[in-house]
């Protein structure tokens, strides 16, 4: 894809506007399509407010007007897709709505245009399997809002081409995102992890062990601060002398028993340990722990300084 | 408890040293008991390194030497408990080891001395039910390390007195911690939530959906950044126009179905919503969302500026 691509954003709601902000901030030419006139009128003031907030936080230095100049709005789908290199779709999570839209987009867009969906739950397989151009379709599910949070779950269907995945990953990396290619599964990774934590938290509330405030306090003053810069596996990897495998030896059985299971799955433990060792050799673990401790102290100071 | 209390820390390993650092930093007189001479010799250099790291991060301004002057080390348990207002125990997670120690502590300590355990899994009920002074015993399980992370799970047994809980909460709040009183359950809240997330993450690895690196990337560039300053329930509360109850209407069923369940537990949803409304009325939600967005942008900037 060219350094400056033409990006069509379909749907001018919260997520669509945030995508438009992100792509325009990084120099791309953005066409933001929204059929509803009232919603369309609200888009630019909302985007401007996002840019102002980023400027206030020191995340952007370019003048808001210059970023906004790279975004145009249209009501018509065909006009949005005309000449687009990449399409990011953000319509409601309704299978029939998405299917009808993708039939139109597949007909209107150039053969090589990537059609990416922001869907948080509906898979590409469900929406696109009947399309002639299904190989250029996939899901690119962002964290919310994508102009601030970098994670994007890139979820190809079995029929999605390698080229489509590569072009999507390349485009998203180029605008500072962290695209993560994963397999198709209900809820993808982000919402499955969120739902697993929420399920246990609600069970603790149901059992009268803790209320919502207690649970939020525990997470934000402990696990959340580690997961904010390491994620759960690196956190555990650094919390045992011999890395994740050692952690699993120490805590795998008691943690599994909390949920009526005997142990953690052996193959998954080996896989996680192998991934971690690619990122950080055993003899580098102590250096990494020093990095973690410095990062944690700096993060704690940052959070304590913020207004409540 | 007096403004300046005498604190006995039992066990000079990583957690014991961190507790000693925290209490001494806040002006208390600390006696750190460690029977092993080699471990005892290593304690002060390690504590000094922690204080230096805090100073580097701007978390402490007092000279390290002044903080260290408030910590003395002893090998003998009786000497440590002599005149102690509060005891924080940090011996290995071995039921028989803890039982033997608590028999000695209950005999040696003043009647009014609080005996708090850093145990991450063994409950006060298991260790202390036979003791004459069991009403002054409880668990105070810290996040690791307590001199940086504020969450402390305060877990009384059925026989623990109200006064013991109140004195513990007051002392911990006074040194800047966030004590959270919860009911007794295996793993308490912190490790149950960590284990629930780890369980789902390992299942995704087992199923070949994502590897460890992908999962860590998704969490640290999305959920982790929100949980670091809000916790999971406030995150969800702010993510639906009508608060948590509205969020549950939108996502409760699809999230529950990921785990083969029909819906989220109705009573728990109502309880969480009620807790959230005590913290933030419905008509204050928009202000709180603005706070969230500013906090998130500032946190994102902080994390991006840190060295990898």
UniProtKB/TrEMBL annotation, chains A, B:
Residue ranges occupied by any 3-hydroxyacyl-CoA dehydrogenase C-terminal domain in the UniProt entry: 187-238
Biological process annotations from GO: fatty acid metabolic process
Protein's UniProt keywords contain 4Fe-4S: no
GO molecular function: L-gulonate 3-dehydrogenase activity; NAD+ binding
Keyword rRNA processing: no
Alphabetized UniProt keyword annotations: Oxidoreductase
Classification via Pfam families: 3HCDH (PF00725), 3HCDH_N (PF02737)
Domain 3-hydroxyacyl-CoA dehydrogenase NAD binding, chain residue ranges per copy: 7-184
Family: Belongs to the 3-hydroxyacyl-CoA dehydrogenase family.
Name of this protein: 3-hydroxyacyl-CoA dehydrogenase
Organism: Novosphingobium kunmingense
């Amino acid at each position: 894809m060219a350094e400056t691509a033409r990006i069509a954003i379909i749907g001018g709601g919260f997520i669509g506007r945030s995508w438009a902000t992100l792509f325009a901030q990084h120099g791309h030419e953005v066409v933001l399509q929204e059929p509803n006139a009232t919603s369309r009128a609200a888009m630019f003031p909302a985007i401007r407010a996002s840019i102002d907030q980023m400027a206030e936080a020191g995340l952007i230095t370019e003048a808001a007007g210059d970023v906004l100049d790279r975004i145009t709005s249209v009501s018509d789908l065909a006009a949005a897709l005309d000449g687009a290199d990449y399409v990011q779709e953000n319509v409601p999570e309704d299978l029939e709505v998405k299917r009808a839209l993708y039939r139109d987009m597949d007909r209107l867009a150039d053969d090589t245009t990537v059609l990416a969906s922001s869907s948080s739950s509906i898979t590409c397989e469900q929406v696109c399997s009947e399309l002639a151009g299904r190989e250029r379709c996939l899901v690119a599910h962002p964290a919310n809002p994508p102009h601030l949070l970098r994670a994007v779950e890139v979820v190809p269907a079995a029929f999605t081409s390698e080229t489509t995945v590569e072009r999507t990953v390349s485009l998203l990396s180029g605008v500072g995102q962290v695209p993560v290619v994963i397999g198709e599964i209900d809820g993808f990774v982000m919402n499955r992890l969120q739902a697993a934590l929420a399920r246990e938290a609600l069970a603790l509330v149901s059992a009268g062990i803790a209320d919502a405030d207690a649970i939020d306090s525990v997470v934000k003053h402990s696990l959340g601060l580690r997961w904010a810069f390491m994620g759960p596996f690196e956190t555990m990897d650094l919390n045992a002398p011999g890395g994740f495998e050692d952690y699993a030896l120490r805590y795998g059985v008691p943690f599994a028993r909390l949920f009526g299971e005997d142990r953690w799955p052996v193959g998954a433990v080996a896989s996680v340990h192998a991934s971690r060792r690619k990122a950080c050799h055993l003899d580098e673990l102590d250096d990494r722990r020093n990095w973690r401790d410095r990062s944690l102290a700096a993060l704690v100071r940052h959070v304590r300084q913020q207004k409540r």
